[in-house]
Amino acid sequence: xxxxxxxxxxxxxxxxxxxxxxxxxxxxxxxxxxxxxxxxxxxxxxxxxxxxxxxxxxxxxxxxxxxxxxxxxxxxxxxxxxxxxxxxxxxxxxxxxxxxxxxxxxxxxxxxxxxxxxxxxxxxxxxxxxxxxxxxxxxxxxxxxxxxxxxxxxxxxxxxxxxxxxxxxxxxxxxxxxxxxxxxxxxxxxxxx
Length: 193
Description:
mainly alpha, 76% helix, TLCD, membrane, TLC-dom, transmembrane
C-alpha cells in the first residue's frame, strides 16, 4: 500500500469514527447518561473500534497464518489497512479528548494515543519498560521490606515469592526487549510475504 492510499485510509477512518460519534450524539440519551454524554459517546466509539479491529485482526491471522510465527517481517495488505484504520481512530480519539476534556483529566490517554500514532521507537519502549515495570516493582519491594514487621507473615511470604517471580519475569522480558529492539539488526523488517 503506497503512502497516498495509506493516508486516504487513515483520513477516511478518522472521519468515519467522527461520523459515528456524531450519530451517537444525535440518538436519544438515557437519563443517567445526560451528565456524561460526551464520555458515553467516546466509550461507544471506542467499543466500535475494538469490535471492528479485534475481528479484523483475527481475520488477518486466519487469511495469513504465517503471520502467527513472524509479526515483524510479514504482513499483508489486509493487515496494513487494519493498522491504518486504527491509526485513524487514534487520531480521531486524540482530537476528541483534547477538545472535550481538560489535559489534567486525560493526559495519560493522550500520551498513550500519541505513542500509538507515532509508533514509539525502541528506545522509548525500553524507557517505558524501565519506568513502569522496573521502578514499580522496585517500589513494591522497598515497601514490603520497610513494612515487613507490620504485615502478617503469610502476606510477607506471598509478597516475597510473588515479587521474586515478577522480578525474574521482568529480567527475562527486559533481555528479550533489548535483544529484539536493540541488539539485532533491523535489516529483515522490510520483507513483504
